[in-house]
Amino acid sequence: MKRIAVIPTLLTLGNAVCGFAAIAVASKIGQPETIDHTDYYFALSGWLIIGAMVFDALDGYVARLSKTASSFGMQLDSLCDAISFGAAPAFLVLRMGPGWGVPRLHQAVAIVATLYMVCAILRLARFNVESAIDSGTSKRFRGLPSPGAAGCLASLAIFRSQVSSRWPAFDPELVRTILAVWAPLGALTVALLMVSRVPYPHITKQILRGRRPFRHLVQVVVVFFIIFLIQDLALVLLFWVYGIGIPLRYLWLRSMRPEAVPRPATGMDDRSQ
Hints:
- This protein is mainly α.
- The protein has one domain (6-261): CDP-alcohol phosphotransferase transmembrane (TM) domain (Four Helix Bundle (Hemerythrin (Met), subunit A)), CATH 1.20.120.
- The protein is built from nine helices and two strands; from the N terminus they run ααααβααβααα.
- A two-stranded antiparallel ribbon has the order 1-2.
- α2 (38-65) packs antiparallel against α3 and α5 (146-166) packs across α9.
- It is globular.
């Protein structure tokens, strides 16, 4: 503790700042003075969680690049992740979900949001315990990483805010009703996946590390171009395909060929998601 890495630590704290800002922005949703700017606050809160994911990826990358990774950085990262990928998405679910006019329904949504936050914290605590065993070279996570789960919920808020302006072919009220129902159900699903043993691929390691053929670079460029063109819908598809599609594939492979299912590694690192 006599010396700490300044840049990775600042990036990690930037993660927490984005998470706290996402909560502060989401708290304005539904207030009488901001009722005309509901979509703006949904979008801003969702993008702040996405911003926290960027800081979360950068701090680990910079720490490894500068060879300044430490136990202090790991613990600090988990504390910040608990804010950005635990508390902030849970609070966003409270705002997206139905039930403000029905006390019982609102209580049910509040229970789901609380369960999501608890599972995210458990996921991070499990990583802290298992990281002493993990060598850091594994290409798979054990359970859905907390940034991926948070991205699933943040993408719903972003899509909800832009459906009227960017997707006029959709009925905005119908889409918002569907999202209001799916937000707590989806939050419950990804919460359970976070504490599951389902193996998830390490996307950044598979995309960015090592040498790849030229077609791999072309595919990455095309994917980023599509994300740029249809940001809101692309985020929904990417996060939810990663969050739910992979365990469905895992179950299908397990039922067809048990030996084809990859074994979960002993420890997984949320920081490099």
